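B., you asked whether I could sanity-check this one before it goes into the benchmark set. Here's the sequence:
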Amino acid sequence: MQQLLGHIKGDKVIWSIVLLLSLFGLLVVYSATGTLAYKVDKNASHFMVKQLAMLMLGAGLIFVVHKVNYAKFSKLSKLLFFFSVPLLIYTMFFGAKINEGSRWITIPIIHLTFQSSDFAKLALFMYLARLLSIKQTVIKDFRLGFLPVLFPVLLICALIAPENLSTALLLGVTCCILFYIGRVNVKHIMLLALTGIVGITILIMASITFKFGRGETWLKRVEDYRGTSTNGGEKVQPFQVQQAKIAIANGGITGRGPGNSQQRNFLPHPYSDFIYAIIIEEYGLIGGAVIVFLYLLFLWRCILLFKRCPYAFGAFLAVGLSIKLVFQAMLNMAVAVHLVPVTGLTLPMVSMGGSSILFTSISFGIILSISSYVDKMEGTQIDKKDEGSKLFIQKGATKKSNNTIATA
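And here's what the prediction gave me:
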């Protein structure tokens, strides 16, 4: 064991957060899948064992990826991005239909399904980190700096949005935050936000008018959130929202205790989309607050890593991936407590999953790889040629012109 721990590098706090989230998720998934196991005629521990296997595989991926010099991901990001585009197009036309959306691809022979948007999200942030680091000297210029980093975002979001609007919105907002951190002109970011709003409006209207995509589902979710859904002229509250509120109310401050949830028998998808409601029911507001704290602590550690990382590519990659994961977690929890419309996003490393756990694990592995490299380089002379990106973030630099590299 001591020999194994000696091979583990990087931020120990982030390692601890991953472990705690995984253990917490394993307990709640076991509790929340009892009814599902009964329906599909499986043993009560079937889904817990499956979740444990995915978490162990994810831990293996984290270990392997965190041992790789993160600078190598700079060149790899270009290949992954260009591979993700035809993959999304294939998914759109030939992907498996789940909840009226083509989101899944089945790998032949082994019959393993995975969500192509998970792969595309990871590839996009790796590629954006590379572009932002390369374009820092001209990032304020609309044609030379902004357009090259804008095109990949619009392309990936446009391919994901027709079947998975919530993921496209998550990507768009997160990329805007990354652009701001990457010193993109605020006017250009506002233009991107306006373009996104107009594009989404056109997509929804066209989907409803021409009966394609999921326009009616999106509209129904907004009506449910606003409380304007009607049945026979009377306003009704969506069943899943109602059951989530009951679960949260039953939890109180300290909760019913592990495995004692009642609403898991009524709440749709209590092991994925609405797992946070089950967490509060069983562990109370205290347990729910602990989950929020863990994600915020993870974000804070990544922000510290961003400040310490001497190279632009690593800094942007760490903060981009962390914001994406934490923002997704916050949206999932916000849905459970009815602060935003239903999105279908999972709680990273906690919700029951397959490919989502694996791609999330890869993200954690990359962040830990950056952390390991920063720990190794602190106190040593930094060689600019050692970095995959071509720009060095100079500590304490001041912003004098568009061609000056400033501290992000």
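One thing to flag: The mean pLDDT is 83. Otherwise nothing jumped out at me.
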